[in-house]
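Assemble and predict.
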Amino acid sequence: MTAEVFTARQLEALHDHPYATPVIAVTGGKGGVGKSTVAVNIAAALAARGHAVALVDADTEAPNNHILLSLPLKDHIDVQVAMPLVEPSLCTHCGDCIAACRRNALFLPPDQTPILMGECNGCKACINACPTGALLTRWMSVGATCRTESGNLTLFSGELLPGREESTIIVRALKDRLAAEADRFDIIVVDTAPGVHCTVIAALAGAGCAYAVTEPTRVGMHDLGLILDLCEMLAIPARIILNRSNLSGSQATIAPEAASKDVTVAASIPHDSILLQSYVKGLPVVGTNPDSPAARIFTDLAARIEREWLK
Amino acid sequence: MKICITASGHGLDARVDERFGRAPFFVLVDPDTMQHETIANPAMDAGQGAGIAAAQSVAQKGVNAVLTGFVGPKAYAALQAAGIAIYDGLSAGMEVKTAVKNYSDGLLRRSTGAQARKGSAGRGRS
């Protein structure tokens, strides 16, 4: 029902990337369902099986994969956007910059120079439109990308500065940084932000499949529906991971939801105190307690991902 | 002297539109002669920055004062930067000519700051 939102050409452009390494996404609509826990454990399990894994923490507004892995954030690279800076001596008050700004972010008071008042997204249209070179480029930091290597696993993490709104730009910068060395990885695991907005779309772009993590609550089911719709729009095959699967409540509702969307439940993870302890410690349960029930589920999932994508 | 009244139609008999950035029309009036012209607000359907773009149109027309219902934070800043006086608090039922008369009679109050209106109109954020 939702598949026609994007044209085939738009989808092709969205999913295009300059490497052949398979990409799987961990997403889920609702916050707090365990997306990052699932992502770090899948990544750690794949790394333990001898694969070179890139884990991309694309939840740029609250990146925390490094905390769940007890890894430091290293090799910060600033992400900057271009803002116009007016050189008054060169400005002829022509108004071309005002006309060029699609976001109406610039204001030209009579006989004065332009003032940046609105929400600039760094497109530089005003700077390019200025006939006298009176608009200079001022680079403004909006966040950073980081890269931390730990054995077979390399964590790429993006973080947006508080109060900024360029989270999608950070996700793109993160993916560009990954692309530069993507060929040396066997698989890329992308952990998205919650929600179904542009940051999540940018994170899902290029994924061969998406694991939608949810929990058996009414809120979880509602938000699962949203993310499954988004995956359908983006033509990304989705599977469900039901976390806290033994939570008493609306567990029965998952089957009809899955059936109506033609997706399968790839894993059900019951509430597990060992998993919770590993989360608190900041170490993947597949490493700390490889024989625990949750670790076996993640390892089994990693083995299936291996069969599907790494043979 | 030229004043701008935000309106839902053309001319002095039009009704006031309470919004500034997303008003359909601006009626520009010389209160001494009552000579007037109506311009469409090109920012009415703008995706973003309607208040700033509307202020730009008004400033380019050499307006000295804006009479409207309420002005969002960015439009307020832009009008201030252009030295245009802001009179807010007009209600939508009023005719433009009545607003002009009230202005001439000194019955309108100068705005004390940007207004946010609940659940409607502009999306201005400060």
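The first strand of chain A starts at residue 23 and ends at 27.
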